[in-house]
Design goal:
With 106 residues, this protein is mainly α. It has three helices and no strands. The protein is flat, with a radius of gyration of 19 Å. The protein starts with 13 loop residues before the first helix and ends with a helix.
Length: 106
């Protein structure tokens, strides 16, 4: 542990650590003594979204972003991946490479 390594297995991309913490919170806990900071924005915003969803369900019986007709899905082409951008590649180049590989696989 004296080295400069990462032992979490999630690398140095800290938003991944926040997502892990938000998605694996476990049973309901007393969080009144928590000391969240600005770097915990993912956790904070997920909790706010969950509270808004609960309120909406209680008031209307409808879940937020519930899509009953697939033709109305505003995220039909949304792609979410976890990958590395090549050392000599920018974001646009990465997207072009990813989409080309995806099209070739279909």
């Amino acid at each position: 542990m004296k080295g400069d390594g990462d032992f979490s297995g999630m690398g140095r991309y800290f938003p991944a650590h926040d997502c892990f913490a938000a998605e694996t919170q476990g049973p309901i806990q007393d969080r009144t003594q928590e000391h969240l900071r600005s770097t915990d924005i993912v956790i904070i915003e997920i909790r706010k979204a969950l509270l808004r969803a609960i309120k909406l369900m209680e008031e209307t019986g409808e879940a937020p972003w519930r899509i009953r007709d697939t033709m109305e899905n505003p995220f039909g082409e949304f792609v979410c991946i976890s990958a590395f951008i090549g050392e000599n590649e920018d974001g646009s180049g990465f997207c072009r490479r990813f989409l080309a590989n995806k099209a070739a696989a279909e």
